[in-house]
Specification:
Strand content: under 5%
Radius of gyration: 38 Å
Structural class: mainly alpha
Order of helices and strands: HHHHHHHHHHHHHHHHHHHHHHHH
Length: 599
């Protein structure tokens, strides 16, 4: 190791002092295949970096960190031109070598490589700015950095944090070109997926064009690639308040000189690039293009959910045309399950704020209502959006009635925490839509007994109960008269009532909910949980706009079994029975239900 580092020092002195440029080839031969030697690798990067910076400052043989564009018709045959071309080739090899270090398993090597590359990018920006008399960003090298990072199997959070904290958030041009380079990487991967290309192009570093840069690991699995890109996009700052961000490429002193009128098209393009770095619209456009390109990839399920979770707050507000997300959100909403729940936020914003026409919105929303909604992780978010979706007083009564009836039917199968949210939600819906109140006070057909006041069963003895049960069984087992057709309806005066509500119907317009009644609330009034039964009693009061008070659903959405249990423990009872007769057995011989009440 010591011999290798000392040999690097000798070769460095040979290049800088004696101008023996062939020693650069010896340096690359020395470090070839020794990436595991961390000390030698770091020393080699430092030596090469120093060599190229000094040569560029001295302009040996006209060498620069950014190669000069030479016309193909002008063949450079002079010895000085050949030396310059040799140095430019070795500079390209140096960049490729350091870029590959971003895939190193050691995080310290990755961090060192990133710092070295970004230092080179900064020097190239300064050189381009001085050469063009206009602020210009070094896209070529920076593009290789981003492509290498998103195609890395060993991308560490520390390296990503270093890039974003030290460069992206401080410099407007770095932020802008980060989005552009990410879009380029996504486009290349999408094109590869489209054409089913599996072979990796292996070209010499000096023949690589800026538009055809390939990463060292372009065959990375699409799932890992998507996770790397998402880590970038999730940590990048949003394109707001970028007007005062200091730009790396505008660090030259050319600002002090008055700008001359731009006549040449190239000069106009350079001035446009300068304005882009601090222009919010340019950042927003790059942000939008990058995200839309990313959403077109076959995303893994975990990344898909993460995107939907943050889309309505961190993505949608900064898209230039939010309706461009309508296909993605409607497709997500049609998937069903938790994905539909997560897509509801963004789709609701497009419908309410951007006038998206989506006729099946309430049909899909109605289909999402089941018991699992009240136990999923994001139930508070869904229930809040459900409340917002049904706030409009212009909704048809039959649609609102379907949601009311569906939630009421679910409430008899929900845990107490779910029931305590459904009851006030139904109450608020009745306040907004008085035409649905008929569902509460609808009488039983053929009588005047309200739905919630079922006839009280008469008290009976155990022997009478068994006798009546046997009579009913014998009556049902008797053969029907032959004169009665099998298809003839049998009318029963005191038979069970049939609810016209069709629970299995997925279209809220066809459930017949408005013809039904909320007998389920009567069950909630007799719920085993005292909190539920007490809250269900609110439907016994008269529904008038002056008397009815709106319930804040946020107070009920976070209730759990534990919180309800603690409430019951801490609740003070008004009266406690102090005397009682201790029974000797569960059932007595004379009257089995002596201590039982059926009211």
């Amino acid at each position: 190791m010591e011999s290798g580092v000392s040999r690097l020092k000798e070769l460095e002195s040979s290049v800088l002092t004696y101008k023996k440029y062939n020693s650069l080839a010896d340096i690359f031969d020395l470090i070839k295949g020794k990436a595991d030697d961390k000390d030698l690798t770091i020393a080699a990067v430092q030596v090469l970096k120093k060599i190229f910076v000094v040569l560029a400052e001295r302009q040996d043989h006209g060498f620069q960190l950014i190669p000069k564009a030479v016309d193909s018709e002008q063949e450079e045959t002079s010895s000085s031109a050949q030396v310059r071309k040799f140095l430019e080739t070795k500079l390209t090899h140096y960049v490729s070598f350091v870029v590959k270090l971003l895939h190193h398993t050691d995080v310290n090597i990755q961090t060192f490589a990133l710092r070295s590359l970004m230092a080179l990018v900064k020097r190239q920006c300064q050189e381009l700015t001085a050469s063009h008399k206009q602020a210009t960003f070094a896209q070529h090298t920076f593009q290789q950095v981003i492509l290498a990072m998103v195609n890395s199997e060993t991308l560490s959070a520390e390296v990503l944090e270093l890039l974003i904290h030290n460069y992206v958030t401080k410099f407007g041009d770095v932020r802008l070109y980060t989005f552009k380079c990410l879009k380029l990487a996504i486009s290349k991967r999408r094109e590869r997926l489209r054409t089913n290309e599996t072979a990796e192009d292996e070209e010499e570093a000096e023949d690589v064009d800026m538009e055809d840069i390939e990463s060292p690991n372009s065959t990375l699995a699409i799932a890992a690639f998507c996770r790397n890109v998402y880590d970038f996009l999730a940590n990048l700052p949003d394109p707001s308040n970028v007007e005062n961000i200091a730009s790396m490429m505008a660090s030259s002193e050319e600002k002090k000189k008055p700008e001359k009128p731009a006549h040449d098209s190239k000069q106009k393009r350079k001035r446009k690039e300068k304005k882009e770095a601090n222009n919010m619209k340019s950042h927003q456009r790059a942000f939008s293009d990058c995200w839309l390109a990313f959403l077109s990839l076959p995303l893994p399920q975990d990344i898909y959910k993460k995107i939907l979770l943050r889309l309505h707050k961190n993505i949608l507000p900064y898209i230039t045309d939010p309706l461009r997300l309508s296909d993605f959100l409607t497709d997500s909403y049609n998937i069903g399950g938790i994905v539909s729940v997560l897509a509801l936020s963004g789709l609701f914003i497009l419908i309410t704020k951007h006038h998206l026409d989506y006729p099946d919105f309430y049909k899909k929303l109605y289909a999402l209502l089941d018991e699992s909604i009240f136990t999923v992780k994001y139930r508070a978010r869904f229930l809040k959006l459900l409340d917002l979706s049904l706030k409009s007083t212009l909704m048809p009564a039959y649609v609102v009635a379907s949601f009311i009836k569906k939630l009421a039917r679910l409430s008899i199968r929900l845990p107490p925490s779910g029931c305590l949210w459904v009851i006030p939600f139904l109450y608020n819906l009745f306040r907004r839509h008085p035409s649905c109140i008929v569902m509460i006070h609808k009488p039983i057909p053929g009588g005047s007994v309200p739905v919630f006041e079922a006839p009280k069963p008469s008290t009976t003895t155990f022997a009478d109960f068994i006798t009546a049960l046997a009579d009913n069984l014998n009556k049902d087992s008797e053969p029907k008269p032959e004169s009665t057709p099998a298809s003839a309806p049998i009318e029963k005066k005191d038979g069970p009532l049939i609810d016209p509500f069709i629970e299995s119907e997925t279209d809220p317009a066809k459930t017949n909910a408005l013809e039904s009644s909320l007998w389920e609330v009567g069950c909630l009034k007799r719920h085993y949980c005292g909190s539920v039964s007490r809250l269900a009693a609110i439907f016994e009061t008269q529904f008038t706009k002056m008397q009815a008070e709106k319930y804040e659903l946020d107070d009920f959405v976070s209730l759990t079994f534990q919180s309800l249990f603690e409430q019951e423990l801490n609740r003070k009872t008004k009266s406690v029975p102090l005397a009682f007769s201790e029974p000797k057995s569960l059932f007595s011989d004379t009257d089995p239900f002596q201590s039982w009440s059926f009211e």
